[in-house]
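User: Hi! I'm working on a homework problem where we have to compare a predicted structure to a textbook description. Could you give me the structure for the chain below?
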Amino acid sequence: MTAGRSGRAGEDPGGVRVAPAGDQGVYVYFPQRIDPEVSRRVRRLAQALRQPEARRRGIREAVPAYASVYVIFDPLQTDHRQVARYCRRLLAGDAGGQEPPARRFRIPVVYGGRYGPDLEVVARHTGLTPDQVVRLHAGTDYFVYFTGFSPGFPFLGGMSPRLAVPRRVTPRTRVPAGSVGIAGRQTGIYPVDSPGGWNLIGRTPVALFHPDRDPPALLAAGDYVRFEPVSPDVYREIEAAAAAGAYQLRPEPVGSGGRAVHDAAGDAATGDAAPGGAAAGDAAGRGREEESR
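Assistant: Happy to help. Predicted structure tokens:
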């Protein structure tokens, strides 16, 4: 490949670089930063590579991440050079077409106690009180960059840097489904029981992944999430209703200014009312009180 204007081999003027990945794959690298606009370009390319025309060209799958797309192709139908050329053509045009409207999900969470055993650890590390941790964490909208690690696991951006903590030194062998965790400057939700090394600060009764649902994963890249603190009693009510098929979490539409809610502020949250009539601090307190019973 010849060098583009950027001077780096294989890199286009838009900062996109295409590189071989094994004998049946290529990586399409976008500017390497965690950014909603880069994420939008990633999603549009991945969407275009899943269309029938791409299938006819021998492309089997497109796997998006924060700032890249891994493209898997059939080596009996095509090769690295043809796939790279096709990806560049899509990027030069209107790859992906019209994006679906953004959605916001308000996800109920019990913070602390047996639901969030690392809340106190996060509080000590950050120099905040547990209630302040809850208010910061529940005080902003989070952008879903992509899903992975386990089926439906959302990698969320927008967390306050004041909540950043390192991963646990010793990962847990089992993290319950619905657990809300923090690792570094990221936060996410474990959709299924699995091992994990994130710090657990709460848990939601909402099922993020169900194999019999269409689609199986509740959240998708481009969605927004807002955590709503609830009491353990409300958690159990929702859990029972969901088990009986009487609870469904419905998203809210996000306007054209949806990206404006993606920020790392969160610091202004002071205890908004939560479902069940509990303020953020009250809900966290009741989660810890239940643990002590």
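For your comparison, note the following. The helical segments are 36-48, 52-56, 80-92, 119-126, 130-137, 232-243, 280-292. Residues 1-9, 256-280 have pLDDT under 50 and may be disordered. Good luck with the assignment!
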